Amino acid sequence: MSKRLLVFALPLLILFVLPTASQADAAVVQDSCDVFEEGGSTFVRIYFTIVIIYGLLALLVAVPLGALGANALSRFLIGAFNAETAPFTVVPQAVLVQIVLALLAPLLAALVPILSGSRITVRPSGSALPDSTWGALTPTSRR
To answer: What are phi and psi of 86, to 5 degrees?
Structure first.
């Protein structure tokens, strides 16, 4: 029973923890506006690092669940033909493909937004915010 609970609880935990971590990342970035005004390379490095970390976290979930799911599916399909299944094994090629995809797919998906975001400065990007929000971030707006 505890294994079933873990299988269902772990994805839910990750589903609720990762968005919170993303919000924390946004707060850190908002507090360090001075760093980003120095140049876009710092911005690019920070966000590509975050993307790689999220890819590795996804890999930690995908490899074991993918192996268990593939084993269950193969047992089901082979059992439908009344044949005997081979013992459970992890295929190294499948793990290698998962590693490559878990690292490359998020990087490629984030490439355009990160590079286009690194070309604008903090002040114009904040102009899309309501005046009360952006004004709270500038020291000259205090009255």
So the answer is: -75, 160
